[in-house]
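in:
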């Protein structure tokens, strides 16, 4: 029996891009798992950032029970619990979105920045693995032309990114994000 070998490893590398730029604001997607939020805090401390902003839409479950109502608030609360400086942190929640959640977060950030005291010309966006390419594209589109956007992809712990196709979590994530990226590039999320 002959086996077919497909070039699957480059798919993850393409999606999980890291391309940070010099920036004094780190934007963290608030839905990230705790270990990635902790890694974002390490990134903040090792960089020349002045401010950290968390983004995110309303929680999909537990909204009526939870103290925090959005992923932006959960991410900020996690950072505070880890000892992050409250004076250098803002949670920017997006309106409730059933679809195009990343776009809703990017637009909320764009609308919030002029109301803040921050002068921002560039940011680094901190997100999770294979979600990076799509988030980077959407945030660049939403914040252009005024704000340059770099990207940092946290490495997932629920599957090995080098052999993502050998686990159901890896296959689901990479396939979902590949489709999501195509949708972001050619879909109707801008409305």
């Amino acid at each position: 029996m002959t086996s077919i070998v497909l070039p699957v490893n480059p798919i993850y590398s393409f999606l999980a891009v890291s391309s940070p730029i010099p920036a004094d604001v780190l934007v963290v997607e608030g839905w990230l798992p705790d270990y990635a939020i902790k890694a974002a805090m390490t990134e903040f401390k090792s960089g020349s950032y002045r401010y950290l902003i968390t983004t995110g839409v309303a929680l999909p479950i537990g909204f009526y029970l939870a103290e925090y109502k959005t992923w932006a608030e959960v991410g900020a609360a996690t950072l505070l619990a880890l000892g992050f400086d409250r004076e250098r942190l803002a949670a920017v929640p997006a309106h409730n979105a059933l679809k195009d959640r990343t776009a809703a977060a990017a637009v909320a950030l764009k609308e919030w920045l002029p109301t803040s005291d921050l002068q921002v010309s560039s940011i680094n966006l901190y997100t999770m693995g294979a979600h990076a390419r799509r988030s980077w594209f959407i945030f660049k589109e939403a914040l252009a032309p005024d704000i340059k956007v770099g990207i940092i992809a946290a490495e997932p712990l629920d599957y090995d990114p080098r052999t993502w196709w050998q686990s159901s979590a890896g296959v689901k994530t990479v396939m979902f994000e590949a489709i999501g990226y195509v949708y972001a590039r050619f879909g109707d999320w801008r409305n």
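note: The domain at 18-158 is CATH 3.40.50.620 (Rossmann fold).
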